[in-house]
């Protein structure tokens, strides 16, 4: 394979990943690392560097739209970013010392989790949650647009959410993913934020978390322009097209198919990790 | 403590959206131009990414990338675009610091300054980790 063929094939794969990722809400970043390592036999460290870059691109692009619509809770996001950026720095530092097989196995497990969590049923309406002392002090309570107008909500479980966010940051720095699934878990389950607020605030945070890890990967020489170029342009282009297509009934089926693909990739990553083939 | 002015918040959100979109567009443009230069000048048969070597020093640091991009090298230009992309969320946090200062929300000024410091540490001093 020469440079041009490599660039075009990786670009097309990334375009598809970005398109499906944005349509299903799973994000294109999660399949980039398995695609590059399993299909193109790229070293996992280069793959993680390229995936991080694509995560920043799609998250910043999407966040621009969500922030404007008034869904994301900027205060909650900013406060939790302390936890995710510290976590991302720790994760990126740990990744430099871990064997690539170990990273591959952890990656596979994280993939399985994100595939499962995307299939979980989402309940938008919460039973009235009482105000919380820390959340009130941090002025996190807010309101978000619903079909019936602006609905106010209270935030709870700040310490638990903060701890989970640290974990999300570590995973992001270690694996080069946005770890949106863990972020949503922290806000939706632990902090009782409305689901739409959780997903959009998570998206808003992903760019900052990924930027914290990307700085370290860049200065360590893990971001290769020849790989990152087709990945970034492909994922960004694919996600822009995906966002323009109206979500319909087919999305459910598509999400299921994409979930199965991710599950398959996860098993392959774990197998390769144990077999020492990474 | 005063409640934040909703109209003010909305205006800040709109500026933030423009900031994010321009950062990503500028980065994508630089990467695209760099990619075209890179592919048109590249006549090596194949690159082996299977073996990890790490990038040369001039593609790792902010100053090195700026020097490389100034000579219109494809790889340097791509790396400059990626640097702009990484800087976009940093700029967003910086903007939030200013926005919270404007609202005189000292708690959140402190929170955003901490996040900003962590990001700057990663970008400028992360190689030492």
What would you note in describing this structure?
The complex is a heterodimer of chains A (278) and B (129). Chain A has eleven helices and two strands. Chain A has 278 residues and is mainly alpha-helical. A two-stranded antiparallel ribbon of chain A has the order 1-2. In chain A, helix 2 (29-39) packs antiparallel against helix 3. The radius of gyration of chain A is 18 Å and the shape is globular. In chain A, 60% of the residues are buried. The model of chain A has no long low-confidence stretch (mean pLDDT 86). Chain B has 129 residues and is mainly α. In chain B, 73% of the residues lie in helices and 0% in strands. In chain B, helix 1 runs antiparallel to helix 3 and helix 3 packs antiparallel against helix 4 (106-125). At the A-B interface, helix 1, helix 3, helix 4, helix 9 and helix 10 of A face helix 1, helix 3 and helix 4 of B.
Rg for CA atoms of chain B: 19 Å
Percent range of helical residues of chain A: over 70%
Query: Which blocks of ≥5 consecutive residues of chain A have pLDDT under 50?
Result: none
The number of helical elements of chain B comes to 4
Mean pLDDT of chain B: 83
Strands of chain A, total number: 2
The backbone outline of chain A, from C-alpha atoms, is globular
> What share of residues are in beta strands of chain A?
under 5%
The largest chain-to-chain contact, stated as pair and per-chain residue counts, equals: A-B, 64 and 69 residues
How far is the N terminus from the C terminus of chain B? 40 Å
Low-confidence stretches of chain B: none
- Biggest sheet overview of chain A: 2 strands, antiparallel
The quaternary structure here is heterodimer
Supply the helix-strand structural class of chain A. mainly alpha
Describe the global form of chain B.
elongated
Strand order, main sheet of chain A: write it out.
1-2
Q: Counting H and I runs of at least 4 residues, what is the number of helices of chain A?
A: 11
Order of helices and strands of chain B: HHHH
């Amino acid at each position: 394979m020469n440079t041009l063929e490599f660039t075009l094939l990786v670009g097309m794969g990334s375009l598809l990943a970005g398109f499906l990722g944005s349509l299903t809400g799973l994000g294109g970043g999660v399949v980039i690392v398995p695609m590059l390592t399993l299909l193109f036999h790229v070293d996992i460290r280069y793959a993680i560097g390229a995936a991080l870059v694509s995560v920043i691109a799609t998250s910043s692009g999407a966040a621009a739209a969500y922030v404007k619509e008034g869904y994301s809770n900027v205060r909650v996001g900013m406060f939790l970013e302390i936890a995710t950026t510290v976590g991302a720095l720790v994760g990126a530092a740990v990744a430099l010392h871990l064997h690539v097989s170990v990273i591959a196995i952890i990656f596979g497990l994280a993939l399985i989790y994100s595939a499962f969590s995307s299939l979980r049923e989402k309940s938008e309406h919460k039973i009235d949650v009482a105000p919380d002392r820390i959340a009130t002090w941090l002025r996190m309570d807010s309101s978000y647009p619903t079909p019936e107008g602006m609905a106010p909500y209270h935030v709870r479980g700040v310490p638990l959410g903060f701890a989970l966010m640290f974990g999300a940051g570590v995973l992001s720095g270690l694996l080069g993913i946005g770890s949106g699934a863990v972020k949503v878990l922290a806000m939706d389950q632990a902090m009782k934020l409305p689901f739409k607020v959780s997903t959009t605030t998570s998206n808003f945070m992903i760019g900052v978390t990924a930027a914290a890890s990307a700085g370290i990967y860049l200065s360590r020489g893990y971001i290769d322009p020849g790989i990152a170029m087709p990945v970034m342009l492909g994922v960004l282009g694919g996600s822009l097209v995906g966002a323009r297509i109206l979500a319909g009934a087919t999305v459910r089926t598509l999400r299921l198919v994409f979930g199965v693909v991710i599950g398959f990739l996860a098993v392959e990553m774990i197998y390769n990790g144990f077999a020492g083939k990474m | 403590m005063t409640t934040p002015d909703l109209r003010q918040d909305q205006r800040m959100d709109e500026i933030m959206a423009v900031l994010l979109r321009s950062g990503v567009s500028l980065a994508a443009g630089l990467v695209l131009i760099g990619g075209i230069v890179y592919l048109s000048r590249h006549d090596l048969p194949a690159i082996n990414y299977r073996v990890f070597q790490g990038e040369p020093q001039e593609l790792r640091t902010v100053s090195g990338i700026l020097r490389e991009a100034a000579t219109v090298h494809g790889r340097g230009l791509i790396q400059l675009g990626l640097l702009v992309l990484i800087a976009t969320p940093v700029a967003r946090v910086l903007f939030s610091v200013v926005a919270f200062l404007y609202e005189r929300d000292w708690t959140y000024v402190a929170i955003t300054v901490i996040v900003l410091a962590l990001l700057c540490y990663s970008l400028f001093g992360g190689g030492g980790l």
